[in-house]
Amino acid sequence: MSSSTQSSSAHGASSAAPAAPQSLCAREPHVPAERLVAEMVPPPRFASARFDTYIPDPNQPSQTQAVEVLSSFAAGLGGAYPSGSGKRKWFAKKPAAPTGPRGVYLDGGYGVGKTHLLASLWHATPAEPALKAFGTFVELTNLVGALGFQQTVKTLGGHRLLCIDEFELDDPGDTVLVSTLLGRLVESGVALAATSNTLPGKLGEGRFAAADFLREIQGLSAHFRPLRIDGEDYRHRGLPEAPPPFSDEQVTKAAYATEGASLDDFPHLLDHLARVHPSRYGALTDDLTAVCLTDVSAVPDQSTALRLVVLADRLYDREIPVLAAGEPFDKLFSEEMLNGGYRKKYFRAISRLTALARDAKGLVAD
User: Fold this and answer.
1) What is the pLDDT of residues 249-297, one digit of tens each?
2) Would you say 256 and 20 are in contact if contact means Cβ atoms under 8 Å apart?
3) CA atoms within 13 A on the CB side of 125
4) Would you say 107 and 196 are in contact if contact means Cβ atoms under 8 Å apart?
């Protein structure tokens, strides 16, 4: 895209011609550490999530049980401030170290409403927003990278609750880092809640030599009470199948007709994601109303696939429709990927992108 085209897109087009769509590949956002901290709240899709708006599957009693357990957990966080909050009087005794799990861990397949429940817990916890934090596992590790370990402990150590969505251990470095961080936060009195598709004792399995880091993984597991949530993917429960991919011409025409849309060639976008840190993928989508992609095809390797998973999560969180031409989203990942250690991440990405494709169907004129 030329600089003149970008300029007209940024400042609006004249009435004589429609504004050209934006390009994700032309964006290289800078995200200050202050923004990373300020954005540790439930994303827009879950801003209004509450326990009473969660609709349990009547055939899955574990979903109703999860609401009851988490409601009680939230109510129990309304007591004294954690020791790191500065609210304790100077002569008060230091609180005893917590005994037993100081957190709850929502384990279940993709699409059973774990993030909705986690966001509901954040909203239900009786504390001001500044004393609660909500972010994905990737966002938490990015925060440590931006602030440094000690400053992250200081920033989060006075919180009442830390919610971690999509908890995964992808490498040994993450295992040691997160184990140490959560241990320090629990010592400060911070309660934890997390979601994952993998039981805490099985984290890292199939991705690296998890047995070599068994102590750290067991230490992480000790912080949580596992809460199993069974069920099928609600994103497709009773809904029609996602529309088949459109043609490049249809997608391009829709991008030009949709104010605030982006338009990118999929292979070029994948290349661009390799040059942008995943912590900036949310900022990459700022102010977009739709993402339009041409020439969608299977991702070439695992590193590329994992970056795409993060982008899919950020698009889903922000409720940005995705209009695509090329291969359908269930063909993005190879059979080897779908049978490997990251398979649950890939299935989640397929599920979320399929939902966003359904949302985008109305962008194409009949």
Assistant:
1) 999 999 999 999 999 999 999 999 999 988 889 999 999 999 999 999 9
2) yes
3) 29
4) yes
Sheet holding 261-265, edge to edge: 261-265, 290-296, 322-326
**Is the pLDDT assigned to residue 24 strictly greater than 90?**
yes
Digit-coded pLDDT (tens) for 289-320: 999 999 999 999 999 999 999 999 999 999 99
41 is written with which tokens?
């709240």
Coil, helix or strand for 68? helix
How many angstroms separate the CA atoms of 54 and 49, rounded? 7
Hey, what are 22's tokens?
């934006």
DSSP notation for 313-357: HHHHHTT--EEEEES-GGGSS-HHHHTSTTHHHHHHHHHHHHHHH
Phi, psi of 224 (to 5 degrees): -125, 145
Longest CA–CA span in the chain (Å) reads 72
Helix H segments across the chain?
3-11, 33-38, 61-75, 114-124, 137-147, 149-156, 172-187, 214-222, 248-257, 266-273, 281-284, 302-317, 335-338, 343-360
Residue 213 sits at φ, ψ, to 5 deg, of: -120, 30
Residue among 192, 189, 220 at smallest CA distance from 204: 220
Sign of CA dihedral 41, 137, 354, 31: positive
With H, G, I as helix, E, B as strand and everything else as coil, classify residue 40: coil
- The pTM assigned to this predicted structure is 0.76
Q: What is the pLDDT of residues 128-185, one digit of tens each?
A: 999 999 998 888 888 898 899 999 999 999 999 999 998 776 556 676 788 889 889 9
Phi, psi torsion values for 104, nearest 5 degrees: -125, 140
Measured distance between the N- and C-terminal CA atoms of the chain, rounded to whole angstroms: 28
d(CA 74, CA 161): 9
Q: Which helix (H) or strand (E) holds 103?
A: strand 103-108
Half-sphere exposure of 303 (CA within 13 A, CB side): 6
Write out the two tokens for 207: 């991705």
DSSP letter for 25, please. G
